[in-house]
Amino acid sequence: MASAPSSTTSRIHLPDTARDLVKVLVAGPFGVGKTTLIDSVSEIRSLHTEEQLSEASAQVDDLAGVREKSTTTVAVDFGRISLPDGIVLYLFGTPGQERFRSLWDDIAYGALGALVLVDSRRIDASFAVLGLVEESGLPYAVAFNAFPDRPRHYTDEQLRAALDLEPTTPMITCDARDANSSIDALLALVQHLIDHPPEHR
């Protein structure tokens, strides 16, 4: 297991060992934990564009399974983490709602891959985001965020089949609140990018 940075939010400048600077997306449906994951791993103070949910947005956004959520990302989250071997990830969290789809191309521009967070209580909510990632041609890994009340009776094979994932697509469980667990999910994506380099990018 990877270790979290010893002092997150304290490093501003890039480390001298930085060699490969990589833009990756942290994608997923509304309320799946993208902002939480970026917060947990970022070595700089993460940037958020969150707004309070309003009565008007509640008529548009599906709050099923996330009734306790009070804010939503309306543009992008941003963080940075330095990994071993000089790899530095720039993390761009994407909005999860369909009404922000017009931002997708701009946020995805220049990205090498995506970590797609999935809530196993609401698997069908992930289909649209996975479709966007696949349409863009981005290699990706899937991370099931370990919510306390998530179902435990699904096998890996059932989850992979439900999302129609290719056999080579990495699939991992993580806790977006825990830095070490979130770093492991990001490392799974990085290894996938190394093993399957996106030639057209």
Keywords:
201 residues, alpha/beta, six-stranded mixed sheet, two-stranded antiparallel ribbon, 6 helices, 8 strands, globular
Care to describe what's here?
It is globular, with a radius of gyration of 16 Å. The longest helix has 17 residues, at 179-195. It contains 6 helices and 8 strands. The chain has helices spanning 34-41, 55-58, 104-108, 127-135, 156-163, 179-195; strands at 20-27, 50-52, 71-73, 77-82, 87-93, 113-118, 140-145, 171-174.
Q: What is the alpha-carbon Rg in Å? A: 16 Å
Helical proportion, percent range:
25-40%
Multimeric state of these chains?
single chain
Spell the H/E element sequence.
EHEHEEEHEHEHEH
Output the strand order for the largest sheet: 4-5-1-6-7-8
**Low-confidence blocks of residues:** 53-61
- Major sheet, described briefly? 6 strands, mixed
Protein structure class: alpha/beta
Number of helices: 6
Strand residues, percent: 15-25%
Q: On the 0-100 scale, what is the average pLDDT?
A: 82
Secondary-structure topology with pairs:
Elements lengths: L19 E8 L6 H8 L8 E3 L2 H4 L12 E3 L3 E6 L4 E7 L10 H5 L4 E6 L8 H9 L4 E6 L10 H8 L7 E4 L4 H17 L6
Parallel strand pairs: 1-5, 1-6, 6-7, 7-8
Antiparallel strand pairs: 2-3, 4-5
Overview in brief:
The chain has 201 residues and is of the alpha/beta class. The protein has helices at 34-41, 55-58, 104-108, 127-135, 156-163, 179-195, and strands at residues 20-27, 50-52, 71-73, 77-82, 87-93, 113-118, 140-145, 171-174. The strands form 2 sheets. It has a 6-stranded mixed beta sheet, with helices on both faces.
